[in-house]
Design goal:
- Keywords: Glycosyltransferase, Metal-binding, Queuosine biosynthesis, Transferase, tRNA processing, Zinc.
- Its EC number is 2.4.2.29.
- Helix 10 runs antiparallel to helix 15.
- The chain is globular, with a radius of gyration of 20 Å.
- The longest helix has 28 residues.
- The strands form 4 sheets. The protein has an 8-stranded parallel barrel, surrounded by 4 helices.
- By secondary structure, the protein is of the alpha/beta class.
- The chain is 41% helix and 19% strand.
C-alpha cells in the first residue's frame, strides 16, 4: 500500500504516501502550477526552496497549450518542468463546472468550447486518461462532473451515478494504456472523486460505491464552490467514516489556513488551492498573526519582514517597505516575492500540523490557529 498511517489524534491523521517520485509526508498541501508553472514567476527550483512536496497541474489547460502530446515528446511533465517530486494532474472535471456556459454533458463525456479560441474539444473518461498518460504525472485524477451548489437532488443523484460509470471507464483505460506501453509514467496512480453536492445520503452512497474499486486514493470534490464552510465541514464528517482507512484522502480546492486545519481534524490528508498564490499577487500575505495587505500605507516605512515568525527566503532578506514599494510600482518582483512567501507559509503550516500530530498536540494547535490565521489584520 502506498499510504501508511503512522498515528492519529482523534480523526486527524499523520501519514506517509509513497510514490515513484518520492515519499510525501502528510497532511500536505500541493502547490498549484496550473499551466506547469506557479503563477507569480516561481520555477521548480524555487518550489524546493519553499518546502513544496507536490506540484499540481491542470489537464484541460495543458491539453490546450502546449498540448499533451508535445509534453509526452518532451519526456513528460517532470522533464519538461524540471520538477522531480510528485505531480498530480486533475482530470478536466473541474472545467465541467467552471466552463458551464461553454460545455455540453452526455453519457460519453463533455464537449467544451475552448476558452482560448472557441474550437470544440471532446473529453470523456478515456480522453482524460490518455491526456494524463501523456503528461506522465505521478497521480491522475478520474474524470468526473463537479456540480454547482445548490443543485437539485434528482440531478445530483444522476450525476453521481454517471460519475461512478465514468470512474470505471477511467480505471479500465488506465490499465489499457499501461498494458500497451502508452503511458509516460507506467507507475501512474489513479484517484477517484466523491461527489454528491451537499446531500449527505448521496455523498455516503457514492463514497461506498467508489471505495469498492480499490483505487490508489480518494478525493472529496465539489466543495469550496460557494457553499458555506459549515456545509463543507458537515459533508467531510459524513463521508470520512466511509473512506478507506488505508488510502490517502484528498480534499480538492481547499482552502484557507483555517479550512485546512478544520479538514485535517476531520481526517483529510491532502489539499490544494490557488488561494495563497492568487491572494499574494494582490498583496494579501499570510502571517502567523493573520492576513496583511502589504499595500497599506502603514507599511511604507516598515523595516521589518512580512512576518517576524517566518524564515522564508523573502522574510530573511526583504522588508515590508520594499515589498509595498514593489506592489505600488507594479514591479513583477513584488508578485514573485509575495507568492514565494505565501506558498512557503502554507507548506510551513503543514509542517507544523505534522509536528503537532507527532507530538500529540494537534488539538492545541487547532484551537490556537484555526480562527487567527484567517483573520484580516
Amino acid at each position: 500500500m502506498p499510504y501508511r498511517l503512522l498515528k492519529t489524534e482523534h480523526n486527524a491523521r499523520r501519514g506517509e504516501f509513497e510514490t515513484v517520485h518520492g515519499t510525501v509526508q502528510t497532511p500536505a498541501f500541493m502547490n498549484v502550477a496550473t499551466a506547469a508553472a506557479i503563477k507569480g514567476g516561481l520555477s521548480a527550483f524555487d518550489l524546493k526552496d519553499i518546502h513544496c512536496q507536490v506540484m499540481l497541474c491542470n489537464t484541460y489547460h495543458l491539453h490546450l497549450r502546449p498540448g499533451d502530446k508535445l509534453v509526452a515528446e518532451m519526456g513528460g511533465l517532470h522533464k519538461f518542468t524540471r520538477w522531480d517530486g510528485p505531480i498530480l494532474t486533475d482530470s478536466g472535471g473541474f472545467q465541467v463546472f467552471s466552463l458551464s456556459k461553454l460545455r455540453k454533458i452526455t453519457e460519453e463525456g463533455v464537449t467544451f468550447n475552448s476558452h482560448l479560441d472557441g474550437h470544440k474539444i471532446f473529453m470523456g473518461p478515456e480522453e482524460s486518461m490518455q491526456i494524463q498518460a501523456n503528461l506522465g504525472s505521478t497521480i491522475a485524477m478520474a474524470f468526473d462532473e463537479c456540480v454547482e451548489n445548490p443543485a437539485e437532488y434528482k440531478y445530483s443523484k444522476a450525476s453521481c451515478d454517471r460519475t461512478v460509470r465514468w470512474l470505471k471507464r477511467c480505471k479500465a483505460e488506465m490499465e489499457r494504456l499501461k498494458r500497451e506501453g502508452l503511458a509516460v509514467n507506467p507507475d501512474q496512480m489513479l484517484f477517484g472523486i466523491n461527489q454528491g453536492c451537499t446531500y449527505e445520503d448521496l455523498r455516503v452512497e457514492h463514497m461506498k460505491q467508489i471505495a469498492e474499486l480499490d483505487l490508489d486514493g480518494y478525493a472529496i470534490g465539489g466543495l469550496a464552490v460557494g457553499e458555506p464552510a459549515e456545509d463543507m465541514y458537515r459533508i467531510i464528517s459524513a463521508v470520512e467514516p466511509h473512506m478507506p482507512k488505508d488510502k490517502i484522502r484528498y480534499l480538492m480546492g481547499v482552502g484557507t489556513p483555517g479550512n485546512i486545519i478544520e479538514a485535517v481534524s476531520r481526517g483529510v490528508d491532502l489539499f490544494d488551492c490557488v488561494m495563497p498564490s492568487r491572494n499574494a499577487r494582490h498583496g494579501h500575505l499570510n502571517t502567523w498573526s493573520g492576513i496583511i495587505n502589504i499595500k497599506n500605507l502603514k507599511y511604507q516605512k516598515d523595516e521589518g519582514p512580512i512576518d517576524p515568525e517566518c524564515d522564508c527566503p523573502v522574510c530573511r532578506n526583504f522588508s515590508r517597505a520594499y515589498l509595498r514599494h514593489l506592489f505600488k510600482a507594479d514591479e513583477m518582483l513584488g508578485m514573485r516575492l509575495g507568492v514565494m512567501h505565501n506558498l512557503y507559509f502554507y507548506n510551513r503550516l503543514m509542517e507544523r500540523i505534522r509536528q503537532a500530530l507527532d507530538e500529540g498536540t494537534f488539538q492545541e494547535f487547532h484551537d490556537r490557529y484555526v480562527t487567527l490565521l484567517d483573520t484580516r489584520i
